[in-house]
Amino acid sequence: MFILLVVGLVGIGVAVALLVPASVLGAKEPPRPVTATVVESGSCGQGMDTVEWDAGGEKKQAKLDGCGHTKGETVEIVNTGGDMVSSAASLPAGLPVGRRLTALLLCMAALAGGFYAFLFRYAPLRAPAVMPTPRRAESPS
Q1: What's the pLDDT band for 65 if we cut at 50, 70, 90?
Q2: Per-residue DSSP letters for 7-49?
Q3: What is this structure's pTM?
C-alpha cells in the first residue's frame, strides 16, 4: 500500500513538473526568431556572414555566427544581444524540462531501490505451507 502511495505522489510530481510553464519556475522567455537576409557572404575559413533584418522599423546589421550562406538568402536568426547573432536552428527549441524530468525520475528510482532494500532486509520470514489435516469421516448414526 505504501509503495502505491509513493508511486502515485511521484507521478503527480512528474505531471506538475512537466505541465507547469517554465516562466512560473523563473526561467526567462526564450528569444524569438527573426527572418534576416544575408547581405555579405563570408568564406568559412576566413570570416562570417553578415545579415540584415528589420527591428521595429529600423534596419539592423550584424555578423552571423555561421558561414557559407549565399548573398540574398533568408535565414532565421536569434538576436541575443551584442554584435553577433545566432542561427535559430542552433538553439534548443523546446522547453527545458529535460533536467526536471531527469531529477524526478532519479528520485523515483532511488525510492524504488530503497524500498526494495527495505523489503529484502526486513521482510518477515515466510512460514512453510502447512497441509491441512484431513477430516475424519463421521459414521452415520
Answers
A1: confident
A2: HHHHHHHHHHHHHS-TTTTTPPPPPPPEEEEEEE---TTT---
A3: 0.48
Give bridge partners of residue 77 from the DSSP assignment: 34, 87
pLDDT at residue 115 in the model: 79
Domains of the chain: 34-90 (2.40.50)
Q: Cα dihedral sign for 70, 71, 77, 80?
A: positive
Q: Print burial letters for 23-40: b (CB count within 10 Å at least 16), e (below 16).
A: eeeeeeeeeebbebebbe
Spatial separation of the C-alpha atoms in residues 7 and 106, rounded to whole Å? 13
Tell me the three cell numbers of residue 125: 520470514
